Amino acid sequence: MNELIFAIKDEKLVSIDDVEKGVQCGCICPCCGENLVAKKGNIKCHHFAHISGANCDYGYETSLHRLAKEIMQELEYVVLPSVDIGKNMYGEINLYKPYKAKIQKIELEKKYNDIRPDILISINNKILAIEIYVTHKVDFEKIQKIKNDNLSMIEIDLKELLKDKEKNTPLNIKNILKQILLSDNDVRKYWVFNSKKYQYLKQFNLIKEVSFYLGNPIVKTCPNIKKCKWRECNFNSWYSVRNDCKNCIYFLEYDKIGSNLICLNKNISLGENPNPNTSIPIITGYDKQPIISKCPGYIIYKKHPTPNLKDCIKCPSFLSGTETSINCLLNQ
Predict the structure, then answer these.
(1) Pick the residue with more confidence: 260 or 35?
(2) Cα separation of 309 and 314, whole Å?
């Protein structure tokens, strides 16, 4: 457990560097509200301790929640990470790019339906939850609840503070949090759940719910049973995400955090009667995988002129398709 280096004084968050030593500091614990003593000796790192000698399990993390709130109030905005829908040979495919969002309102540990996120912020009149990860990641149960509530959530990973004691100083923690909040590509800030991505994939019937058996991710039905020629398998049981789905040509992404599988099959049967004005034939590529005979948008999107079917379906110009052709918005 990290030493407590932030506390509450006169209803404001203060660091150990800002107060007098001893009980004269006049501080209380951010979590339990007990009186603290500021220990500022010459041997150990300066820190707060409970006068009673008790160990507050959540005092440190609660202080980081308060600190993140103060930093966001000071900045008045936060950079939201990109929303990706998988990878192809060209890299990440973004549904939305990183976005600098103005914060309208910030609330700490406020109950939202039957969950209590670390931080709730309002952006463009919509609610976004933020979780600070130091010792415990967002668990599966909370993820299912935010999905049911259609509540987007970002997690900020600060577990490095537990591994490197030298980073656990007030100035360093403030700088780390500012860097994460303002960066457009920091891997320590990521989506746990994004409602827009979920609805986008759901409208094309791409989402498959993942269950768990003995800790292993599985899917209980396979939409590719009759068409699957990539391996011989008994399709009368559950299917392993790791051993079955990831080898399938229709597999796009397994979201470990949200416990969703993105499967491209079934999506290509969205349109039973393709529009002849926008229709493009599907052919077999050199590796026996389905590809598009031509891509009218390959210059715009900087893609391959005969893209893989997976890449084509993820394209913003994709409309619908069958097993033999697809409809493309740009093929007019």
Answers:
(1) 35
(2) 9
Q: What is the DSSP code (8-state) at residue 67? A: H
Contacts of 145 (CB under 8 A, 6+ apart): 113, 114, 115
**9-36 CB burial, b ≥16 within 10 A, e <16:** eeeebbbbeebeeeeebebbbbbeeeeb
Report the Cα–Cα distance between both ends of the chain, in Å, rounded.
62
Percentage of the chain with pLDDT > 70?
A: 73
Neighbours of 259 (CB within 10 A): 17
Residue ranges of domains in the chain: 6-56, 60-193, 204-265, 268-328
Q: How do residues 296-328 score in pLDDT, each as one tens digit?
A: 766 555 566 777 777 776 675 676 666 677 777
Residue 266, both tokens: 């079934």
Cα distances from 39 to residues 42, 45, 54, in angstroms, run: 10, 8, 15
Residues 6+ apart with CB under 8 A from 81: 98, 154, 184, 185, 186, 189, 190, 191
Tokens 């093929």 identify what position? Answer: 331
73's enclosing H/E stretch is helix 59-75
264-298 pLDDT tens trace: 654 443 334 345 556 777 777 666 677 777 777 66
249: helix, strand or coil: coil
The string of pLDDT tens digits covering residues 179-195 is: 999 999 899 999 999 98
- Rounded Cα distance between 331 and 328, Å, is 5
Tell me phi and psi for residue 98, to 5 degrees.
-50, 140
Q: Which of 320, 321, 317 is nearest to 329 (CA)?
A: 317
| Nearest residue to 142 (alpha-carbon basis) of 121, 113, 110, 108 | 113
